[in-house]
Amino acid sequence: MTFDDFLAHPATVTAHAMLVVLSIALLLAFLRLARGPSVPDRVVALDVIATLLVGMIGVYSIAESDPVLLRVAMMLALVNFVGTVAFSYYLQRRVTR
Amino acid sequence: MEWITAALMTIGSIFALMAALGIVRLPDVYMRMHAASKSTTLGVGCILLSVAVHFGELGIASRAVLTIAFLLLTAPVAGHMIARAAYLTGVPQWDGAVVDELEGCYAKHAPPESEPHGPPPDASRSQETA
Protein backbone atom coordinates (compact mmCIF):
# COMPACT_ATOMS: atom_id res chain seq x y z
CA MET A 1 0.00 0.00 0.00
CA THR A 2 1.32 3.41 -0.90
CA PHE A 3 0.52 6.90 0.26
CA ASP A 4 -1.61 7.43 -2.88
CA ASP A 5 -3.75 4.48 -1.80
CA PHE A 6 -4.18 6.16 1.55
CA LEU A 7 -5.29 9.42 -0.09
CA ALA A 8 -7.70 7.57 -2.38
CA HIS A 9 -9.30 5.30 0.25
CA PRO A 10 -8.41 6.64 3.72
CA ALA A 11 -10.99 4.56 5.58
CA THR A 12 -9.94 1.21 4.13
CA VAL A 13 -6.21 1.75 4.61
CA THR A 14 -6.69 3.06 8.14
CA ALA A 15 -8.89 0.07 8.91
CA HIS A 16 -6.11 -2.32 7.91
CA ALA A 17 -3.61 -0.42 10.08
CA MET A 18 -6.02 -0.38 13.03
CA LEU A 19 -6.51 -4.13 12.75
CA VAL A 20 -2.80 -4.42 13.60
CA VAL A 21 -3.19 -2.04 16.58
CA LEU A 22 -6.18 -3.98 17.89
CA SER A 23 -4.28 -7.25 17.47
CA ILE A 24 -1.52 -5.87 19.70
CA ALA A 25 -4.15 -4.86 22.25
CA LEU A 26 -5.65 -8.36 22.08
CA LEU A 27 -2.22 -9.87 22.65
CA LEU A 28 -1.66 -7.68 25.74
CA ALA A 29 -5.06 -8.63 27.16
CA PHE A 30 -4.27 -12.29 26.53
CA LEU A 31 -1.02 -11.83 28.46
CA ARG A 32 -3.06 -10.77 31.48
CA LEU A 33 -5.44 -13.69 30.95
CA ALA A 34 -2.54 -16.14 31.03
CA ARG A 35 -0.66 -14.45 33.89
CA GLY A 36 -3.38 -13.00 36.13
CA PRO A 37 -2.72 -13.92 39.74
CA SER A 38 -6.37 -14.16 40.78
CA VAL A 39 -9.57 -15.37 39.13
CA PRO A 40 -11.17 -11.87 38.93
CA ASP A 41 -8.09 -10.74 36.98
CA ARG A 42 -8.79 -13.39 34.40
CA VAL A 43 -12.48 -12.49 34.27
CA VAL A 44 -11.55 -8.85 33.62
CA ALA A 45 -9.14 -9.95 30.90
CA LEU A 46 -11.84 -12.09 29.23
CA ASP A 47 -14.24 -9.14 29.38
CA VAL A 48 -11.68 -6.90 27.70
CA ILE A 49 -10.87 -9.52 25.06
CA ALA A 50 -14.54 -9.88 24.09
CA THR A 51 -15.02 -6.09 23.96
CA LEU A 52 -11.89 -5.75 21.81
CA LEU A 53 -13.29 -8.43 19.50
CA VAL A 54 -16.45 -6.35 19.08
CA GLY A 55 -14.28 -3.41 18.02
CA MET A 56 -12.20 -5.63 15.76
CA ILE A 57 -15.31 -6.89 13.98
CA GLY A 58 -16.36 -3.27 13.41
CA VAL A 59 -12.95 -2.39 11.94
CA TYR A 60 -12.99 -5.53 9.80
CA SER A 61 -16.41 -4.67 8.40
CA ILE A 62 -15.03 -1.27 7.33
CA ALA A 63 -11.88 -2.86 5.85
CA GLU A 64 -13.90 -5.32 3.78
CA SER A 65 -16.90 -2.99 3.20
CA ASP A 66 -19.13 -5.83 4.37
CA PRO A 67 -21.54 -4.96 7.20
CA VAL A 68 -22.88 -8.51 7.64
CA LEU A 69 -20.66 -9.30 10.60
CA LEU A 70 -22.05 -6.40 12.66
CA ARG A 71 -24.88 -8.53 14.01
CA VAL A 72 -22.23 -10.96 15.22
CA ALA A 73 -20.63 -8.04 17.11
CA MET A 74 -23.95 -7.22 18.76
CA MET A 75 -24.51 -10.80 19.87
CA LEU A 76 -20.92 -11.04 21.09
CA ALA A 77 -21.44 -7.98 23.30
CA LEU A 78 -24.60 -9.55 24.72
CA VAL A 79 -23.08 -12.97 25.43
CA ASN A 80 -20.01 -11.26 26.92
CA PHE A 81 -22.17 -9.42 29.44
CA VAL A 82 -24.05 -12.56 30.44
CA GLY A 83 -20.79 -14.49 30.76
CA THR A 84 -19.15 -11.86 32.95
CA VAL A 85 -22.16 -11.62 35.25
CA ALA A 86 -22.33 -15.42 35.54
CA PHE A 87 -18.61 -15.66 36.33
CA SER A 88 -18.78 -13.06 39.09
CA TYR A 89 -22.04 -14.50 40.45
CA TYR A 90 -20.50 -17.91 40.95
CA LEU A 91 -17.27 -16.43 42.32
CA GLN A 92 -19.31 -14.55 44.90
CA ARG A 93 -21.48 -17.56 45.66
CA ARG A 94 -18.45 -19.72 46.35
CA VAL A 95 -17.54 -17.40 49.22
CA THR A 96 -20.88 -16.35 50.67
CA ARG A 97 -22.33 -19.86 51.02
CA MET B 1 -16.85 11.30 5.19
CA GLU B 2 -14.02 8.81 4.79
CA TRP B 3 -11.71 11.06 6.77
CA ILE B 4 -14.19 11.25 9.67
CA THR B 5 -14.37 7.46 9.61
CA ALA B 6 -10.58 7.15 9.66
CA ALA B 7 -10.20 9.67 12.50
CA LEU B 8 -12.88 8.06 14.68
CA MET B 9 -11.43 4.62 14.04
CA THR B 10 -7.92 5.76 14.96
CA ILE B 11 -9.11 7.40 18.19
CA GLY B 12 -11.09 4.31 19.15
CA SER B 13 -8.26 1.90 18.43
CA ILE B 14 -5.77 3.96 20.42
CA PHE B 15 -8.16 4.02 23.37
CA ALA B 16 -8.57 0.25 23.11
CA LEU B 17 -4.79 -0.17 22.98
CA MET B 18 -4.38 2.00 26.08
CA ALA B 19 -6.99 -0.09 27.87
CA ALA B 20 -5.06 -3.26 27.08
CA LEU B 21 -1.84 -1.57 28.20
CA GLY B 22 -3.54 -0.64 31.47
CA ILE B 23 -4.70 -4.23 31.91
CA VAL B 24 -1.11 -5.39 31.71
CA ARG B 25 0.66 -2.60 33.56
CA LEU B 26 -1.56 -1.59 36.50
CA PRO B 27 -0.68 -3.28 39.80
CA ASP B 28 -4.07 -4.22 41.22
CA VAL B 29 -7.27 -5.93 40.06
CA TYR B 30 -9.37 -2.88 41.01
CA MET B 31 -7.14 -0.54 39.00
CA ARG B 32 -7.16 -2.95 36.08
CA MET B 33 -10.94 -2.86 36.18
CA HIS B 34 -10.75 0.94 35.99
CA ALA B 35 -8.82 0.64 32.72
CA ALA B 36 -10.97 -2.19 31.45
CA SER B 37 -14.46 -0.84 31.92
CA LYS B 38 -14.10 2.82 30.93
CA SER B 39 -11.42 2.90 28.27
CA THR B 40 -12.62 -0.07 26.23
CA THR B 41 -16.18 1.25 26.25
CA LEU B 42 -15.05 4.61 24.85
CA GLY B 43 -12.73 3.01 22.31
CA VAL B 44 -15.17 0.46 20.96
CA GLY B 45 -17.92 3.11 21.05
CA CYS B 46 -15.78 5.32 18.77
CA ILE B 47 -15.11 2.40 16.43
CA LEU B 48 -18.80 1.52 16.15
CA LEU B 49 -19.64 5.20 15.59
CA SER B 50 -17.15 5.20 12.72
CA VAL B 51 -18.93 2.12 11.31
CA ALA B 52 -22.23 4.00 11.47
CA VAL B 53 -20.67 7.02 9.70
CA HIS B 54 -18.89 4.89 7.09
CA PHE B 55 -21.86 2.89 5.82
CA GLY B 56 -24.42 5.64 6.28
CA GLU B 57 -27.47 3.39 5.95
CA LEU B 58 -30.27 3.44 8.45
CA GLY B 59 -30.23 -0.29 9.23
CA ILE B 60 -26.48 -0.52 9.80
CA ALA B 61 -26.27 2.77 11.70
CA SER B 62 -29.11 1.76 14.01
CA ARG B 63 -27.44 -1.58 14.67
CA ALA B 64 -24.15 0.15 15.51
CA VAL B 65 -25.87 2.68 17.79
CA LEU B 66 -27.77 -0.15 19.48
CA THR B 67 -24.49 -1.95 20.15
CA ILE B 68 -23.00 1.26 21.61
CA ALA B 69 -26.03 1.73 23.87
CA PHE B 70 -25.78 -1.88 24.96
CA LEU B 71 -22.07 -1.52 25.79
CA LEU B 72 -22.72 1.70 27.72
CA LEU B 73 -25.46 -0.03 29.71
CA THR B 74 -23.66 -3.27 30.47
CA ALA B 75 -20.06 -2.19 31.14
CA PRO B 76 -20.77 -0.51 34.53
CA VAL B 77 -22.95 -3.41 35.67
CA ALA B 78 -20.33 -5.99 34.73
CA GLY B 79 -17.55 -3.93 36.32
CA HIS B 80 -19.53 -3.57 39.53
CA MET B 81 -20.21 -7.32 39.67
CA ILE B 82 -16.55 -8.25 39.15
CA ALA B 83 -15.37 -5.68 41.69
CA ARG B 84 -17.83 -7.00 44.26
CA ALA B 85 -16.81 -10.59 43.61
CA ALA B 86 -13.13 -9.66 43.82
CA TYR B 87 -13.60 -7.82 47.12
CA LEU B 88 -15.67 -10.61 48.66
CA THR B 89 -13.24 -13.33 47.61
CA GLY B 90 -10.50 -11.36 49.34
CA VAL B 91 -8.31 -10.26 46.44
CA PRO B 92 -5.69 -8.03 48.08
CA GLN B 93 -5.26 -4.36 47.27
CA TRP B 94 -2.04 -2.89 45.99
CA ASP B 95 0.57 -2.22 48.69
CA GLY B 96 0.49 1.50 47.92
CA ALA B 97 -3.30 1.76 48.35
CA VAL B 98 -4.21 4.47 50.84
CA VAL B 99 -7.71 3.59 52.01
CA ASP B 100 -10.14 0.67 52.02
CA GLU B 101 -13.50 2.29 52.68
CA LEU B 102 -15.34 -1.04 52.79
CA GLU B 103 -13.17 -2.37 55.59
CA GLY B 104 -15.35 -3.99 58.24
CA CYS B 105 -18.49 -3.86 56.10
CA TYR B 106 -18.13 -7.44 54.90
CA ALA B 107 -16.66 -10.46 56.61
CA LYS B 108 -14.13 -11.76 54.11
CA HIS B 109 -13.96 -15.53 53.58
CA ALA B 110 -16.96 -15.94 55.90
CA PRO B 111 -20.72 -16.26 55.36
CA PRO B 112 -22.72 -13.05 55.91
CA GLU B 113 -25.25 -12.57 58.70
CA SER B 114 -28.36 -12.92 56.55
CA GLU B 115 -28.39 -16.25 54.76
CA PRO B 116 -30.73 -16.00 51.79
CA HIS B 117 -31.22 -19.76 51.52
CA GLY B 118 -32.77 -22.02 54.14
CA PRO B 119 -30.36 -23.35 56.76
CA PRO B 120 -29.53 -27.06 56.42
CA PRO B 121 -30.58 -28.17 59.99
CA ASP B 122 -34.27 -27.56 59.17
CA ALA B 123 -34.05 -29.94 56.23
CA SER B 124 -32.59 -32.75 58.33
CA ARG B 125 -35.25 -32.20 61.01
CA SER B 126 -38.06 -32.42 58.46
CA GLN B 127 -36.55 -35.65 57.17
CA GLU B 128 -36.58 -37.12 60.69
CA THR B 129 -40.24 -36.30 61.24
CA ALA B 130 -41.21 -37.70 57.82
Q: What's the number of structural domains of chain B? A: 1
The Cα radius of gyration of chain B reads 22 Å
> In sequence order, what are the helices and strands of chain B, one letter per element?
HHHH
Helix percentage of chain A: over 70%
- Which pair has the most extensive contact? A-B, 54 and 56 residues
**Total beta strand runs of chain A:** 0
Proportion of residues in β-strands of chain B: under 5%
Q: In terms of structural class, how would the helical and strand content of chain A be classed?
A: mainly alpha
Low-confidence stretches of chain A: none
Shape of chain A: elongated
Total beta strands of chain B = 0
Provide a descriptive summary of the structure in words.
The complex is a heterodimer of chains A (97) and B (130). Helices cover 87% and strands 0% of the residues of chain A. Chain A has 97 residues and is mainly α. With 130 residues, chain B is an all-alpha fold. The model of chain B is unreliable at 110-130 (pLDDT under 50). Classes of the chains: A mainly alpha (97), B mainly alpha (130). At the A-B interface, helix 2, helix 3 and helix 4 of A face helix 1, helix 2 and helix 3 of B.
Sum this structure up briefly.
The complex is a heterodimer of chains A (97) and B (130). Chain A is mainly α and 97 residues long. Chain A has helices at 3-8, 10-35, 39-63, 70-96.
